[in-house]
Amino acid sequence: MTDAIGTEIHLDSSFQEAVDKVRSALKDQGFGVLTSIDVKEAFKEKIGKDFRPYVILGACNPHLAYTALSEVPEVGLMLPCNVTVEAGSGGATVRIIDPQVMLRSAGIDDNEVMASMAAEAGERLGRVADALR
Question: Which residues, in sequence order, are CB contacts of 77 under 8 Å at separation 6+?
Answer without folding.
Answer: none
